[in-house]
Amino acid sequence: MNTYIFLLPLYNDWESFSILSKDINLQMKNMNKTAEILIVNDFSTQNPPVFKPLSNIKYINILNLKKNLGSQKAISIGLKYLKEKNKSMIITILDSDGEDDVSKISLMISQAEKRTETVIVSSRTKRQEIFMFKILYSIHKLLTFIFTFKWMSFGNFCSFHSSQLDKILSNDSSWLAFSSSIAKNCIIEKMEAERKKRIIGTSKISFLRLVFHSLRVNSVFFFRSFLLSLLYIFVLYLLYLKGYQWSLYLVSFIIFYNVALFLTIFFNVQKKFFSSLDYLKKN
């Protein structure tokens, strides 16, 4: 018998989560199942509210972090916590702001139960962000594909059987970017879903945060990126010898990009992944 777990990283989105939890409850009610919600509180500056009982949510458990680590590390810690439970679970990860399409939950969970050897991911179709963000996000996906040969059209929103935890956490990739971790370590199955608007407030993502996120996603595949970069530099050098001076600008960009990936890995201190449960506050 599977236990149904929803894992959500959360930073000051308590009001949005209160509404989102009712939507999750409705989905579970329609499936005639009960679930548990595990929130990884990423050192929020706001206190959580008192949650009202929900018919198909057995309880809401909050893991409090000792410092703000960001959503990716919060998810990684939450997964490590669940792995220690050592029981059969269908785990669904989604953001706490309501941007993930909750109406897809029943289908994703159903597929995760049937396809226990895969991770069911939500491949984003329409997005609700401003035009400039859409352009930047498209550039991010294109760069990722060029340097990794991975088309990363999905984020955190996914469902999978707990048997996949060993693969996901088999290395420290989830400490950098959860989406890259499952793309690297697991068999994924994509399911299209629209990216919704935040329930309350505006998106916290900024240009700088998007850049850092893109670097984290790609740094998981650093070795592949480095080898492809050597190939690209060789081709560009041949073009330079033929008189194409502009190729030097691309070579400079590739070198700069790889240095940025290396620094991303260096400053994220990957060794902390192995003792990441120490970031949990004791109740």
Give a written overview of the molecule.
The chain is α/β, with parallel strands linked by helices. It has a domain at 3-129 and 151-201: Alpha-Beta Complex (Spore Coat Polysaccharide Biosynthesis Protein SpsA, Chain A). The chain is 44% helix and 18% strand. It has helices at residues 14-30, 71-83, 105-114, 131-148, 165-168, 178-185, 207-219, 222-241, 247-267, and strands at residues 3-10, 35-41, 57-64, 89-93, 118-124, 154-161, 187-193. Strands 3-2-1-4-6-5-7 form a seven-stranded mixed beta sheet, with helices on both faces. Strand 1 (3-10), helix 1 (14-30) and strand 2 form a beta-alpha-beta unit. The protein starts with a strand and ends in a 16-residue tail after the last helix. The model has no long low-confidence stretch (mean pLDDT 93).
- CATH class of the domain at 3-129 and 151-201 equals Alpha Beta
**Helix percent band:** 40-55%
- Through-space gap between termini: 29 Å
* pLDDT averaged residue by residue: 93
Using only CA atoms, what is the Rg? 20 Å
Shape verdict: elongated
Strand content: 15-25%
Class by helix and strand content? alpha/beta
Number of strands: 7
**CATH superfamily of the domain at 3-129 and 151-201, please?**
Spore Coat Polysaccharide Biosynthesis Protein SpsA, Chain A
What's the number of helices? 9
Along the chain, the helix and strand elements come as EHEEHEHEHEHHEHHH
- The residue ranges in which pLDDT falls below 50 over 5 or more consecutive positions are none
Largest sheet: 7 strands, mixed
Strand order of the largest sheet: 3-2-1-4-6-5-7
The second-level CATH architecture of the domain at 3-129 and 151-201 is Alpha-Beta Complex
CATH topology of the domain at 3-129 and 151-201: Spore Coat Polysaccharide Biosynthesis Protein SpsA, Chain A
